[in-house]
UniProtKB/TrEMBL annotation, chain A:
Entry annotated with the keyword Hydrolase: yes
NCBIfam families per record: DEXH_lig_assoc
PANTHER family per UniProt: ATP-DEPENDENT HELICASE LHR-RELATED-RELATED, LARGE ATP-DEPENDENT HELICASE-RELATED PROTEIN
Source domain of life: Bacteria
UniProt keyword annotations, A-Z: ATP-binding, DNA damage, DNA repair, DNA-binding, Helicase, Hydrolase, Isomerase, Nucleotide-binding
UniProt domain Helicase ATP-binding: residue ranges: 30-217
Similarity section: Belongs to the Lhr helicase family. Lhr-Core subfamily.
Entries under Gene3D superfamilies matching the protein: P-loop containing nucleotide triphosphate hydrolases
Organism this protein belongs to: Chitinophaga polysaccharea
One example of a Gene Ontology biological process annotation: DNA repair
GO molecular function, one term: ATP hydrolysis activity
Positions of the Helicase C-terminal domain: 251-410
Protein name: ATP-dependent Lhr-like helicase
TrEMBL record, chain B:
Stored SUPFAM superfamilies: Metallo-dependent phosphatases
Taxonomic source organism: Chitinophaga polysaccharea
Protein known as: Putative phosphoesterase
Molecular functions (GO terms): hydrolase activity
Pfam families for this protein: Metallophos
Residue ranges of domain Calcineurin-like phosphoesterase in the record: 35-127
InterPro entries linked: Calcineurin-like_PHP, Metallo-depent_PP-like, PdeM-like, Pesterase_MJ0037-like
Domain of life: Bacteria
Length: 817, 223
């Protein structure tokens, strides 16, 4: 029996000596690992999921070398541990090193990430450590090195940590591709394991990790449940016109008691700008917090972030204002409370954040929900219910990401070159590319060698050379540029921010800084800074004493409501209407509901509410499907398009997570009679494609794609100027591709992404089907209602038109005169 | 040979500074009195420059741009073409060779290039292409210089490029449109970029400066 192997005994003795008792899932994982299987370990954070695999590897090692495991060194890379966050790597390395030391195993644990020093990299190349912790980007960088297969000669296990975080993103695709190459190198000798929190589609997560053709993968589930106590902070005064513009600052005094009564509190905000504002406001409200309050988000200098994380460990901070940057599973033991500012928009994210407090097994995680506007209290009630029913969202894996594949092929081309037939077989075995066609593959290869359609003798495209079946990049310049480029999955160009006198502060979006004039002040990393000039991709600033400063708004900060939460939300509105609800959140909101009901209506589960309101801005149409911003954006475009078929009309479109608005300068021809027809699923796909927004959404998606595929050249560090002639914007590239090369696969990908991720076509269809069997209630309130107010004042806008461009302009001119 | 004006493309004749300026949706001006075609910021060879560096933007953009210029030439039969800077995007590449062939069709047309910040090729190259290069140019009191001037420079009027101007139009219902434009300031006018592989910058003109936007196939006075 496995239990009696030497390794198993050594580990058990060590555990007993430390008075640890392994959880059943850990023993199950060891068993499965020792049988040579691959799979996923599913466990909540704080229950030793790292050990479930790491100790398994050690058991196998001791079994294989029972006499000499305490002496054997320089064994080459045995275990590759992929983690999404650099910060996690350090923590895990520390834990592993402690165990190895106590067990007398002289293994090296190395870290490879963007932060790893050149010296450490060189040392690793000479002698790989037995365990290497690595980010997906750095794994690809290893594959971009000459003679990379040597590094993996002894590799037998890959663990992908926090797989749930990676699976829905292009970084997850990078992992899939990296694994496909490692499997190609090590064949059957490679075991692949994932570690994942609970998600709605865990079985699919296994398919993605191991590829659709695996046959022996298994999921080991820890049947452990985290105790979570959710408490809403209910405003002393409920405004009848909820507005998110102040980002919850008004509620700040009610957050202070939580901070004071806790040892350490994490304050989660949804965007980086919001975290900056909260940091400033907290210090203003309670100056005693100075020195004990810190700020943590993705744009802050790495060193400062690491300092904050260390300080969290040591318990010297009273509170940290943060964003998703602290979502992931590092253990900060002193943290005993979490405040969520504004809705987290999804159950899984909320659970994850709640789990940041009370990290010891069995402890209760305390999370306080602080609404930024009154209606969000309904979301709190919905979250509570969803948590009870364990309605956790799925993470949809990315399919056919041509951009990532192009980047990967270039990576292989700059290292040792690749044989197309071999790589084609490997790539087709991955989940992401299981449906790639041979034509598409050939297109990708020719895109690298001839730059798509070549135009005869005048063309000078140069990137990858083809020698029969073999593809290689021989230009050192291009290879260097590609290595610098790997992993840049940043959509907007980010500029470094530094003081004139030196000293690095963080990074900031170019689009934000380009709107500033020298002398303007803005906030970053909790400091007031005066913009002086931009030089070599660096923003130079000095300290500012200005009272008024602009807080940068960051792209990508807005997360849409998940469908699970949306469904719960509709249920809660239903309950609120019945007046029988016991949720304190809903009871507090009664005055607001009464106003909504008296001005308009509160929709029941089986109703769709539409409000038609006229103001001096024009004719408004508000629709409330409660399906999240993304679905609303598309539905709004679709409805606008269908209305525009009735008569030439132009709309401006706005939406939030509860509903959307069409605004026009002329009456909107929607009536009780034609309403159902306007929401039909008939001709859905065709009409979506026709609607102007498809192009605009694709344009937005194209930005990422162009960067990943290497079409946007971001310049070498510090060498920005010399390459100015190679700068172009993604939007411009999108235009020229659309006009001159409409068959381009990257363009096609942009449209696909727009359809399936941005438009959530499937979810839209479901929503329309729900509306088809619902009752449509149209009201004509005399003034703005509590429901429509947040959409009107606090949302994103877009345009949809069926008028001729020339007519629109003439109209704009007449209204301006 | 007879040329018939097609109704699909509509220019606008702007009477200004005692001259007739045909503002054309092909992003060019035809100066009637001088029989001169004026364009700016062609950035020829930009796509080729990118492709040479391994960035696969579509090939053929330059060919389309030159085809558009060719159509303008056959339509307006100019004696002279003035390019107000940034004719070629960068150093010499094969797109220059393409231009050389193209140029031979219109060997009798005089081409003036007013040097822009991108015009960095050696003088011989321009000579071979039969392009006269000057830092500024003045014809019948009208001055041409690449970068727009802030103040009055003593000439009757000045035309510039460099800026790639676009104009944002706003109206009821929070509608918003951003279009390339011709701008006529008090002393200095700015031409839209002729090349299609070029970005644009939003203009913020004084309320009484004439602005003409390029709306698809027509020119519309925006203010």
């Amino acid at each position: 029996m496995q239990q009696h192997t030497g390794g198993w005994k050594v580990i058990h003795q060590w555990l007993e000596g430390n008075e640890f008792k392994p959880f059943k899932f850990q023993e199950d994982a060891w068993k499965a690992y020792l049988q040579g299987k691959s799979g996923i370990v599913n466990a909540p954070t704080g229950f030793g999921k790292t050990f479930s695999l790491f100790l398994g590897v050690l058991i196998a090692w001791i079994d294989a070398h029972p006499k000499e495991y305490t002496r054997k060194t320089k064994n080459g890379l045995q275990l590759l541990w992929i983690t999404p966050l650099r910060a996690l790597a350090k923590d895990i390395a520390r834990a592993m090193e402690a165990v190895l030391k106590e067990l007398n195993i002289p293994w090296q644990v190395g870290i490879r990430s963007g932060d790893t020093s050149l010296a450490a990299r060189a040392a690793q190349k000479k002698q790989m450590p037995e365990i290497l912790l690595i980010t997906p980007e750095s794994l690809h960088l290893l594959l971009a090195q000459k003679e990379y297969p040597n590094l993996f000669k002894h590799l037998h296990t890959v663990v992908v940590d926090e797989w749930h975080e990676l699976i829905g993103s292009k970084r997850g695709v990078m992992v899939e591709l990296g694994l496909s190459r490692l499997k190609g190198l090590r064949k059957e000798q490679l075991k692949v394991w994932g570690i994942s929190a609970t998600i709605g589609n865990l079985d699919e997560a296994l398919e993605v990790l191991l590829g659709p053709y695996h046959n022996d993968g298994l999921i080991i589930r820890a049947k452990l449940k985290k105790n979570i106590a959710l408490k809403s902070v209910i405003p002393h005064e409920i405004e009848n016109y909820p507005w998110a513009g102040h980002l919850g600052i008004k509620m700040l005094p009610q957050a202070l008691p939580v901070i004071h009564d806790s040892q350490t509190t994490l304050i989660f905000t949804n965007t980086r700008s919001q975290s900056e504002i909260w940091y400033q406001a907290l210090l203003k409200e309670d100056p005693m917090l100075a020195g004990a309050l810190a700020l943590h988000h993705g744009s802050i200098d790495m060193e400062l972030r690491i300092w904050v994380e260390e300080a969290l460990h040591n318990g010297i901070l009273k509170a940290v204002v943060c964003t998703a940057s602290l979502d992931l599973g590092v253990d900060f033991r002193p943290v005993d409370s979490v405040i969520q500012v504004g809705s987290p928009k999804g159950v899984a994210r909320f659970l994850q954040r709640a789990g940041r407090s009370g990290h010891q097994p069995g402890a209760v995680s305390k999370i306080f929900f602080l609404p930024t506007h009154a209606l969000e209290l309904v979301e709190a009630a919905a979250l509570k219910a969803a948590m009870e029913e364990e309605l956790i969202e799925s993470r949809m894996p990315v399919l056919l990401a041509y951009d990532v594949l192009l980047q990967y092929l270039m990576t292989l081309a700059v290292s040792d070159g690749f044989h197309a037939a071999e790589i084609w077989e490997e790539v087709r075995q991955t989940f992401c590319y299981q449906h790639i066609t041979e034509d598409e593959w050939l297109w990708l290869l020719s895109f690298l060698t001839t730059g798509g359609e070549a135009l005869g003798s005048y063309d000078e495209f140069r990137k990858v050379e083809r020698e029969g079946d073999f593809f290689i990049c021989r230009s050192r310049m291009m290879a260097m540029r590609h290595r610098l480029h790997i992993g840049t999955i940043v959509s907007d160009a980010m500029l470094k921010v530094k003081f004139m006198t030196g000293g690095y502060i963080g990074v900031i979006e170019e689009s934000f800084i380009s709107r500033l004039q020298p002398g303007d002040s803005f906030t970053l990393a909790g400091r007031n800074l005066e913009f002086t000039l931009i030089k070599d991709m660096t923003v130079l600033v000095r300290k500012s004493n200005s009272k008024r400063s602009i807080v940068p708004s960051y792209q990508g900060g807005r997360i849409p409501l998940s469908s699970n939460l949306g469904r719960m939300l509709r249920q809660k509105f239903n309950e609120a209407l019945s007046g029988k609800s016991r949720d304190p959140e809903l009871i507090a909101l009664q005055p607001l509901f009464q106003l909504q009901e008296s001005l308009s209506h509160i929709p029941k589960d089986n109703e769709l509410l539409i409000e038609k309101i006229n103001t001096k801005d024009g004719y408004h149409l508000f629709v409330y499907p409660f399906e999240g911003r993304l679905v609303h954006e598309v539905m709004a475009a679709l409805l606008a398009y269908r209305l525009s078929l009735i008569q030439p009309i132009t709309f401006s479109i706005a939406m939030n997570d509860y509903g959307f608005e069409l605004l026009s300068d002329q009456p909107i021809p929607l009536t009780q009679e034609n309403a159902k027809q306007l929401f039909t699923t008939d001709n859905l796909l065709i009409e979506l494609q026709t609607s102007v927004n498809a192009t605009e959404m694709a344009r937005r998606k194209f930005r990422d794609i162009a960067v990943i595929a290497g079409l946007i050249f971001q310049g070498y560090p510090g060498k920005h100027k010399a390459n100015r002639h190679l700068q172009s914007s993604a939007s411009l590239l999108f235009n020229v591709f659309k006009d001159y090369d409409p068959q381009n696969l990257l363009l096609k990908q942009a449209f696909n992404e727009a359809f399936f991720y941005q438009m959530e076509e499937a979810r839209l269809r479901e929503t329309l089907e729900r509306i088809a069997v619902s009752k449509i209630v149209i009201t004509t309130p005399q003034r703005l209602t509590p429901f429509c107010f947040p959409i009107k004042v606090d949302s994103l806008r877009d345009t949809m038109t069926s008028e001729k461009l020339e007519d629109r302009i003439k109209k704009l001119i007449t209204t301006n005169d | 040979m007879q040329f018939i004006k097609t109704d699909s493309v509509v220019g606008e004749i702007f009477h200004f500074q005692q001259q007739h300026w045909h503002l054309l949706p092909q992003r060019a001006i035809f100066w009637e009195e001088e029989k001169t075609l004026i364009v700016s910021d062609m950035h020829l060879g930009k796509a080729a420059h990118f492709r040479k560096a391994g960035i696969a933007v579509p090939a053929g953009i330059e060919q389309e741009d030159l085809f558009r210029l060719q159509q303008l030439i056959t339509r307006y039969l100019p004696q002279r073409i003035i390019i107000v800077g940034d004719m070629f995007h960068s150093t010499e590449n094969n797109d220059v060779q393409y231009f050389r062939v193209w140029r031979q069709q219109f060997a009798n047309i005089f081409i003036n290039l007013v040097k822009g910040n991108h015009d960095i090729m050696p003088d011989e190259v321009y000579e071979q292409l039969q392009i006269q290069v000057n830092t500024t140019l003045t014809i019948s009191g009208i001055h041409f210089i690449h970068e727009p001037c802030e103040d009055h420079n003593g000439f009757q009027y000045t035309f510039s490029g460099h800026f790639h101007p676009a104009f944002v139009m706003q109206g009821a219902g929070k509608q918003r449109l951003r279009l390339p434009c011709f701008y006529f300031g008090p002393h200095c006018g700015i031409l839209p970029a002729f090349g299609h592989f070029t970005g644009s910058a939003t203009l913020d003109p004084a309320a009484d400066d004439p602005v003409f936007v390029i709306a698809g196939k027509s020119i519309i006075r925006a203010q």
